[in-house]
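Quick review question:
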């Protein structure tokens, strides 16, 4: 199978090297002979007037050029706003492969009647005052890629080798879906995004400076996943996909469909992924030294899992008239897996004598995780353009259950009295949210938004632990409730080349903890947080922009941090801290963007600081490790990022997505700190080839991660990930898309990573091994049905009523 895939790729690339290059060139001018910059040109096959074979915009001197895939007769059309289109027919052949269109004159428009269809090219990256958007639908590879692959290309986003997603170098951020918080995505992004096809995603937004409207929780940013929706389309369309990878040797399906019937638009989607022993196999080896005693610990472990992931959802909207809109959303996510691990642990003295040793067999069956999310909203528009009142309700639930059995065998001088552990863990989470928003623009340049929100969260966890061979069977029954009342105001103004935004959000939180088992006294606390934000943006010219911003964010602890249940092994003890409070993080950032015909550049620098961050607290006593959490962190971070897209030729695109974060973490109460860089880089070269083929070469470098007690990084070539892919569209309207790709074709059979611990009296070095890093992949996607955009514009007056989505989505 691998030889077949490689032969297909090499044969196709070899054929393209000997293909004839067919090209065209021309110049757009008006009736007085002046060149027309940024005019739109489109090239059609002479037999097709609907779909261009290529298109673009002219340079500052009006010149345009490009390449064609095959010989034949074509029609060129040049469009300039306010002028008549210039049309010219031409032909290319083997004997005459280059066509010179000369000067194409766009005459005076006169009195044009009827509907006007406006077509424009879309850059991959679009920037607003508070966010950066990546246009997934404009990415040629999106039809046959999954969401986690596309995320590597998004500015300010990095995806680590194990699938962990970070925004601006932090894994503590919120994920929204269509502008609303989505708990399933936030908690399980690593698993879900591997299964979601990018073809159902419209764009990915990084909200770099969340305003007063967004929740104050989260640190660096908000990642907003905007799905393809049908509010402005007619008809019915669906997309089915199937992916196969030698990584797990199991095909995975996905489905997305949308339709509009009269005034109702709805869509359905779903998919899944299989986890088998081949794809989940890991091994580790660890050596540690206790500095106080000089004793040395050695640990080895092997683990495998099998299970599955599935996700589903539906979205619907009803628009009875132009002033009223109802929307409904419902979705879910399920993860279930059985896992097995086997390892050996030992402790030896400095002279090499054995203090104790044992083997550890651990089975977890089953571990299940189930999310449900739903929302209902009503939007009322007034006769004043842009004024809306929105009422929303959202519910989010999570149910988690895990049964595990740990058996200690072949013990020597066992350091504990028990010979095994039975553990049962259940978690239930419910969140209800009610929100009201009012937006009103006035005097064309001002926009004011006011709103209120109420959130109720109920977290319940019950942990039962049975220490086999003893009479110890502790039960922790813990309930944590949070009531949040928030009100906010946001103001935006456009003054010539300047755009300004300011906002203020006030949140009152009531936190309470109850212990049904009576192990601890109940307690509660009240928190008040005032969260300001501000930004100013300056358009140097049409292509260059500068922005400076300040924002504050709140990081509240989840139940896993609060849960006081004690988890014990022969050499460690850990528990949560129910007295944790919220942490405040402040960020200053400076951004520069350039968007020209051939180059898109977005570069940022930022500084974030917090004096009460939630961090781990670790202590070692008598060769035993104790860990918990506290609001004790004094954190500082400096982050830089750069996104560059260069149109190197009419069919060649080069892209770079670079980032580096410098972190300084300190616990003053314990007198310990750690600092270091965390770099990452992704680059991709895409080449369009004849016969509707496109090839790409991508490479990703990950420089590791660091926190107060540990550093994790790949070893050697394992820092680098690379892939080669070949895409081909088939059938009418390119309804069938096929992608062949290979990941890390020259890797060995396993990938090696290294983690080190420090800032305690127990220091360890651990090597982790992941197997089967090389994979050959085949993805097939088929679209059926059709939906046509309805964008109407009368010639009697100039109006921008057809422009949907100019402001941020609610």
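Suggested answer, residue by residue:
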């Amino acid at each position: 199978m691998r030889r077949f895939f490689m032969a297909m790729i090499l044969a196709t690339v070899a054929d393209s090297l000997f293909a004839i290059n067919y090209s065209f060139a021309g110049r757009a001018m008006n009736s007085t002979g002046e060149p027309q910059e940024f005019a739109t040109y489109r090239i059609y096959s002479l037999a097709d007037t609907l779909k261009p074979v290529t298109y673009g915009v002219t340079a500052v001197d009006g010149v345009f050029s490009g390449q064609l895939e095959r010989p034949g007769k074509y029609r060129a059309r040049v469009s300039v706003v306010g002028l008549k289109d210039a049309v010219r027919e031409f032909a290319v052949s083997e004997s005459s492969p280059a066509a010179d269109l000369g000067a194409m004159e766009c005459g005076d428009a006169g009195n044009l009647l009827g509907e006007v269809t406006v077509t424009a090219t879309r850059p991959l990256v679009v920037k607003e005052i508070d966010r950066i958007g990546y246009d997934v639908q404009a990415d040629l590879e999106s039809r046959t890629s999954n969401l986690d692959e596309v995320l590597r290309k998004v500015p300010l986003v990095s995806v680590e080798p194990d699938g962990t997603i970070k925004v601006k170098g932090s894994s503590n951020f919120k994920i929204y879906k269509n502008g609303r918080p989505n708990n399933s995505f936030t908690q399980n992004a690593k698993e879900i995004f591997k299964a979601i096809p990018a073809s159902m995603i419209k764009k990915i937004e990084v909200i770099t400076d969340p305003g007063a409207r967004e929740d104050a929780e989260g640190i660096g940013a908000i990642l907003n996943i905007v799905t393809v929706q049908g509010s402005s389309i007619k008809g019915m369309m669906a997309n089915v996909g199937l992916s196969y990878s030698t990584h797990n040797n199991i095909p995975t399906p996905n489905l997305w469909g949308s339709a509009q019937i009269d005034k109702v638009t709805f869509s359905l989607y779903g998919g899944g992924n299989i986890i088998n022993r081949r794809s989940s196999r890991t091994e580790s080896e660890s050596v540690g030294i206790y500095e106080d005693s000089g004793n040395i610990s050695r640990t080895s472990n092997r683990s495998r899992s099998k299970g599955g992931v599935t996700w589903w959802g539906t979205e619907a909207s009803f628009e009875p008239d132009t002033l009223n809109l109802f929307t409904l959303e419902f979705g879910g996510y399920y993860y279930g897996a059985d896992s097995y691990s086997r390892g050996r642990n030992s402790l030896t003295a400095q002279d090499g004598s054995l203090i104790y040793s044992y083997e550890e067999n651990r089975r977890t069956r089953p571990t299940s995780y189930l999310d449900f999310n739903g929302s209902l909203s009503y939007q009322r528009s007034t006769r004043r353009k842009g004024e809306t009142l929105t009422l929303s309700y959202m519910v989010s639930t999570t149910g988690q259950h895990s049964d595990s059995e740990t058996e200690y065998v072949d013990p020597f001088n066992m350091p504990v009295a028990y010979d095994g552990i039975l553990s049962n863990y259940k978690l239930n989470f419910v969140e209800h949210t009610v929100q009201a928003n009012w937006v009103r623009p006035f005097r064309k340049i001002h926009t004011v938004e006011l709103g209120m929100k109420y959130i109720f969260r109920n977290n319940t966890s019950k942990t039962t632990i049975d220490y086999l061979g003893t009479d110890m069977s502790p039960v922790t029954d813990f309930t944590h409730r949070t009531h949040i009342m928030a009100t906010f105001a946001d103001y935006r103004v456009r003054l010539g080349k300047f755009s300004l935004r300011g906002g203020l959000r006030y949140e009152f939180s009531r936190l309470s903890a109850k212990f049904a088992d009576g192990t601890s006294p109940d307690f509660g606390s009240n928190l008040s947080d005032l969260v300001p934000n501000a930004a100013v943006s300056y358009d140097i010219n049409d292509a260059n922009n500068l922005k400076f911003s300040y924002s504050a964010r709140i990081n509240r602890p989840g139940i896993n941090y609060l849960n006081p249940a004690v988890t014990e092994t022969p050499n460690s003890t850990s528990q949560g801290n129910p007295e944790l409070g919220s942490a405040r993080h402040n960020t200053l950032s400076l951004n520069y963007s350039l968007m020209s015909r051939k180059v898109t550049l977005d570069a940022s620098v930022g500084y974030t600081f917090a004096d009460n961050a939630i961090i781990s607290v670790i202590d070692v006593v008598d060769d035993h490790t104790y860990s918990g959490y506290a609001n004790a962190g004094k954190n500082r971070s400096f982050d830089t990022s750069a996104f560059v897209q260069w149109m190197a030729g009419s069919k060649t695109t080069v892209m770079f997505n670079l980032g580096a974060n410098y972190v300084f973490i300190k616990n003053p109460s314990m007198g310990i700190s750690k600092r270091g860089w965390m770099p990452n880089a992704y680059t991709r070269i895409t080449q369009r080839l004849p016969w509707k083929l496109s090839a790409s070469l991508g490479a990703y470098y990950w420089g590791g991660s660091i926190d107060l007690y540990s550093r994790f990084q790949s070893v050697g070539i394992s820092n680098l990930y690379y892939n080669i892919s070949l895409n081909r569209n088939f059938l009418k309207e390119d309804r069938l898309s096929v992608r062949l790709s290979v990941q890390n074709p020259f890797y060995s059979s396993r990938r090696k990573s290294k983690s080190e611990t420090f800032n305690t009296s127990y220091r360890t070095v651990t090597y982790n091994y992941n197997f089967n890093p090389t994979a050959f992949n085949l993805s097939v996607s088929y679209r059926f049905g059709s939906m046509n955009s309805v964008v109407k514009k009368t010639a009697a007056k100039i109006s921008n009523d057809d422009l949907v989505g100019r402001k941020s989505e609610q």
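Why it works: The chain is about 5% helix and 65% strand. The first helix runs from residue 2 to 17.
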